[in-house]
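Q: I'm building a small set of examples for a reading group on sequence design. Run inverse folding on the following structure and report the sequence directly after it, with nothing in between.
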């Protein structure tokens, strides 16, 4: 894979792993060798129970601490800089959906203590906290509003990816810190239900948030992983939000041995028919595309400052404001 200048801070706001305590995290080398400095990896999503999420979190923590020559478990923003200076990849965790709380608001602080620095509210379907993007469009529930203030209190990034329109707009309006869409493309370029409307993009940016470009081929187009199409999404985000409010959240999964078809068969409701999830051999653009994206942004006349923002400084700004340490 080609490299990018090492002095830049490169932030990938979300990896699209299917969390499991058995996963061999050596796959994180894919980001490390592309000179990514920070990556958020998911330890749970709404399909998993609280127990399964905790077991995954425990296994990932132990693995990362045992491989500290290459990886650094980031608890505060200065850890990201520390990892960058020692040529390691900083990792913290995210959770996709509030089922991981097991209906218990007290879990927010526990997850935070264990390294979770970002949570989204509902994974595709509605839950007790919020609306999902493939379900009836509902706002944040009373429980969701409580969770939001607890996240603001403990210092977690508030993520609106995978949620419904009304839930995302509620989050943006109510949160004390800027709300992000870590991995969501503009629906005005490819009208998938997981992609987001222009109004969501503009509202997110107006409150200081950032939208991360997603590389999963069914969210880019018709199983499309071309750099041209990725750039079309990126430029649309920049046109709507401004270059200061766009980042990277590739949702990338290296080749792993998890049998996705078994997961899809077990809970088909989370990935509804008609939304391309059944597409054979879904492609994926990941961090090795960063040089193409940089070339595209340079050709379009973005300044070095703006490009550095998209590569990492914009998400870093939200992390500094949200993590409060
Ligand atoms: Zn996701």
């Amino acid at each position: 894979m080609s490299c990018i200048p090492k002095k830049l801070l490169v932030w990938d706001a979300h990896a699209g792993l299917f969390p499991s305590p058995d996963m061999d995290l050596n796959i994180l080398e894919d980001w490390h060798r592309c000179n990514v400095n920070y990556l958020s990896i998911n330890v749970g999503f709404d399909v998993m129970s609280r127990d399964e999420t905790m077991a995954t979190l425990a296994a990932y923590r132990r693995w990362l601490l045992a491989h500290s020559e290459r990886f650094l478990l980031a608890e505060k923003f200065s850890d990201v800089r520390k990892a960058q200076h020692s040529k390691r990849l900083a990792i913290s965790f995210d959770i996709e959906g509030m089922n991981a709380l097991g209906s218990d608001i007290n879990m927010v602080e526990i997850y935070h203590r264990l390294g979770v620095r970002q949570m989204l509210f509902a994974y595709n379907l509605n839950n007790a906290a919020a609306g999902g993007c493939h379900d009836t469009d509902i706002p944040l529930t009373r429980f969701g509003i409580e969770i939001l203030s607890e996240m603001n209190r403990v210092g977690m990034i508030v993520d609106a990816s995978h949620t419904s329109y009304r839930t995302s707009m509620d989050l943006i309006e109510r949160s004390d810190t800027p709300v992000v869409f870590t991995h969501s493309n503009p629906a005005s370029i490819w009208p998938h239900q997981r992609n987001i409307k222009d109004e969501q993009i503009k509202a997110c940016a107006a409150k200081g948030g950032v939208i991360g470009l997603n590389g999963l081929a069914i969210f880019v187009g018709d199983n499309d992983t071309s750099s041209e199409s990725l750039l079309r999404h990126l430029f649309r985000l920049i046109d709507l939000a401004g270059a200061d409010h766009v980042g990277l959240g590739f949702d990338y999964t290296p080749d792993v041995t998890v049998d996705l078809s078994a997961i899809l068969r077990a809970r088909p409701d989370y990935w509804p028919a008609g939304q391309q999830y059944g597409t054979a051999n879904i492609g994926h653009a990941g961090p090795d595309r960063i040089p193409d994206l940089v070339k595209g942004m340079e050709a379009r006349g973005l300044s070095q400052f703006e490009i550095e923002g998209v590569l990492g400084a914009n998400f870093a700004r939200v992390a500094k404001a949200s993590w409060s340490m």
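The CA atoms of residues 148 and 175 lie 7 Å apart.
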